[in-house]
Amino acid sequence: MGLITYFSSGAPYDIITGNDDNQDSVISDRPAGERRNTGQGPGYANINLRLGRLWKLSDSPGRKFTLDIAAEAFNLFNRANLRSYVGNLKSPFFGRATSANDPRRLQFSLRFRF
Predict the structure, then answer these.
(1) Which of 25, 29, 79, 80 has the fewest CB atoms within 10 Å, measured from its CB?
(2) What's this model's pTM, rounded to 2 decimal places?
């Protein structure tokens, strides 16, 4: 059995006005008093689990046969880990995520070694 866990705080993102306030032809100006990375996304949590079993099928000299069976779960609890937040104050999606990491994935394997 193997267990891998990942936990982290939310990723920061920039909050911008969506205007060219300083007339430099770039619309990534921040509101007055805002610094870089002042927006904060939610935390990240991911737990991966592996269950496996190895059998020796032959133990004679010169012949080693083994069978390995495993089941793996990635993002075991299917937590929605959101990312890529919209920081543009003019956007109707301000403060919302535009993507997420992978949902739960299950993987089964069978390996025969000779």
Answers:
(1) 25
(2) 0.74
